Amino acid sequence: MEKKLQDQIAIVTGASSGIGAGCARALAGAGATVVINYPAARSKEKVSKVADGIVAEGGKAIIYQADVSKEDEVVKMFTDVTAQFGTVDILVNNAGLQRDAKLVDMTIDQWNEVIGINLTGQFLCAREAIKEFLRRGVDETKSKAAGKIICMSSVHEVIPWAGHVNYAASKGGVMMMMKTIAQEYAPHKIRVNSIAPGAIATPINHEAWDTPEDLQKLLKLVPQKRIGQVEDIGKVAVFLASDDSDYINGTTIFVDGGMTLYPGFEDNG
Ligand code: NAD
Q1: How do strand 90-93 and strand 252-255 relate by DSSP bridges?
Q2: Which among 241, 244, 104 has a CA at the least distance from the CA of 162?
Q3: What residue ranges define each of the domains in the chain, with the CATH number in brackets?
Q4: What is the pLDDT of residue 268?
């Protein structure tokens, strides 16, 4: 089988679980060497399992601890990875979390933590990745692009979400950050795009699908009537990282089973 990402180095942030782990497995399956980033709060044993699984399948992966919201840790991660592997070709800006509350009850800490990881964390990683892409330029033996960034957004970059103002604002911010960086660096053959997942079964939202009643309620929001799996996202990450998407830049691919199609109008509104 053709390995579309052969010899490319990919950093996937927040890759010890859920969508990040799914993207790491998919990129490794396509031939990339994957750096599985995780924050200090994660148990190293759990993170190693993701890397071990990839290696057992014949892929290449290492783990790297860094908090994406901390500038010094992000800079060090890119410096260390570049020193170890020579460069970075792909960044999947995936790390994210929710700290939910009604607006009137939301603390400044809840606001700052979500913006700090979901938006500032993506900015910091994108900045360091772009610096490395500019330094190296295009290496035609690997890709037509000087580098690729995939931002993990959400359907909430366009769907408002009561009780989650910090999260929705962070993803709306990711959308304009992604488009602006794409516009700024397209002349350098750098591609920046987003994936906007709908409801994907991961630890972030397990309370929305772990009982049959909760799942039925959730599926009312999904015209395709199934919850997404991390593999649904991993495949799109490989596409956006590969030259198959060489003319796609500054766009968001919604992977949501139709969640953004106003499902309330499904039966004539
Ligand atoms: P998850 O909780 O399994 O994954 C989030 C990951 O981010 C975890 O591995 C966590 O350790 C990591 N992380 C948190 N803070 C970090 C930090 N400071 N530094 C580095 N890593 C950190 O949940 P998930 O669903 O896989 O979420 C992944 C991304 O997908 C998030 O950006 C989320 O907003 C987005 N998303 C998920 C869904 C869904 O339905 N699951 C839908 C839309 C968007």
Answers
A1: unpaired
A2: 104
A3: 9-258 (3.40.50.720)
A4: 85
Over residues 113-143, the pLDDT tens digits come to 999 999 999 999 999 999 999 999 999 999 9
Q: Can you give the length of the chain in residues?
A: 269
Ligand 1, residues 202, 219, 231: which to mutate, most atoms within 8 A of Cβ?
202
Residue with tokens 């990839």: 54
66-78 tens-digit pLDDT: 999 999 999 999 9
**Residue bearing tokens 């709060």:** 41
Residue for token digits 């499904």?
266
Is 197:155 a contact under the CB 8 Å cutoff? yes
Whether residue 42 has pLDDT greater than 90: no
| Rounded-to-integer distance, Cα 84 and Cα 236, Å | 27
Residue 117 C-alpha to ligand 1 middle, in angstroms? Answer: 10
Q: What are the residue ranges of helices labelled H in 57-139?
A: 71-85, 108-114, 121-136
Query: Active-site residue among 38, 167, 185, 262?
Result: 167
Closest Cα partner for 71 from 138, 114, 120?
A: 120
Atom of ligand 1 nearest to the CA of 42: 11
Backbone φ, ψ for residue 107 (5° rounding):
-85, 160
Beta strand spans in 178-218 (E):
190-197
* 262 flagged as catalytic: no
Judged against a pLDDT cut of 90, whether residue 2 lies above it is answered with: no
147-152 vs 190-197, strand pairing mode? parallel
How far apart are alpha carbons 38 and 64 in whole angstroms?
6
